[in-house]
Amino acid sequence: MGDNQRENVGEGNSDWMSRLPEELLDVPLWNLAIPGSHDSMSFCLDMSSPVLKSEPWLLRLTDRLFPCLIRPCIYRWSTTQQSVLWYQCELGIRYLDLRIARKPAGGSSLFFAHGIYTLMSVKEALEELASWLDAHPKEVIIISCSHFESLTDEDHVQLVDFILSLFSKKLCLSQDTPTLRSCWSGGQQVILSYDDLQMECQHRQLWPKIPYWYADSPDPKEVIAYLEEKKRHGRPGHFYVSGLNLTEDARYILLHPLQNLRRMTVEALSLLLRWTAEQRPGPGVGGVNIVCCDFVGFSRFCSIVIGLNFKLLKAAARTSSGSQLPPG
């Protein structure tokens, strides 16, 4: 897809929450359909950085011996996005998957990671996001902070202090049932999930870990089958993610030496998006909430997910119509 085409993909979605119908403003956000990006910061991976300590020892050893071979390969298969955060938000993304790490020789700054570390720091990314929110006061973003590779207790304290200071009154309290109307009335724009129980218990502005359903497969048919099986067992009561992201393994990479994650994703998009368009949000069994995808700017993914919310209007209209029918 060319640059001009990518620019048109998200046209009209930069303020989609503020334009939802009145009937949806009091729906809990976990009952709306919300587009998200998987591994949101992987657009700026740093090929000069080493492989993560959490990666298998054999991969780390090979990286030390042959970095010129290993890191380009990791880069090809770890890059899941190609747009900066503010542009992802312009496309309509309202859930961000931020995997935080301490980079070796990175000083006091924290970064993000997926296989290898990022060039952009956590502070730079979150400040960029705060500026975007200031320009879009009726948009609400769910931020998931997780993984925390090599972070110390002091790192957590300083990171949370920075988050609380940066977003301040924009943070929605974890005891609330957030709707668009309630967030607007309180000037709240950020739901911050922080996957560390100790920090979560200390700060009511931090939300618990958000469940993420993903199939861990390179086959889009297996991804869909997995999500359908999870749906049959019922959805969580609050926020949760349905992941459309494909996952390669060593065998797949060896059998596809000239491929990369971008190509694999693009080839699967039509099937994955067709499944997405068939979904409906809401509290019932099988109701979707956050739907995450790789390379969110390469298709109509955001528009398709946002459009699912209008199925709630149709369902409400049918219920209202049925309740007005005379008894048989």
TrEMBL record:
Residue runs in coiled coils:
none
Q: Which GO terms describe its biological process?
A: lipid metabolic process
Query: Which Gene3D superfamilies does the record associate with it?
Result: Phosphatidylinositol (PI) phosphodiesterase
Tell me the GO molecular function terms.
phosphoric diester hydrolase activity
* InterPro entries per the UniProt record, alphabetical: PI-PLC_domain (IPR051057), PLC-like_Pdiesterase_TIM-brl (IPR017946), PLCXD1/2/3 (IPR042158)
Q: Which domain of life is it from?
A: Eukaryota
Q: What PANTHER family does the entry give?
A: PI-PLC X DOMAIN-CONTAINING PROTEIN 1 (PTHR13593:SF112), PTHR13593
Q: What is this protein called?
A: PI-PLC X domain-containing protein 1-like
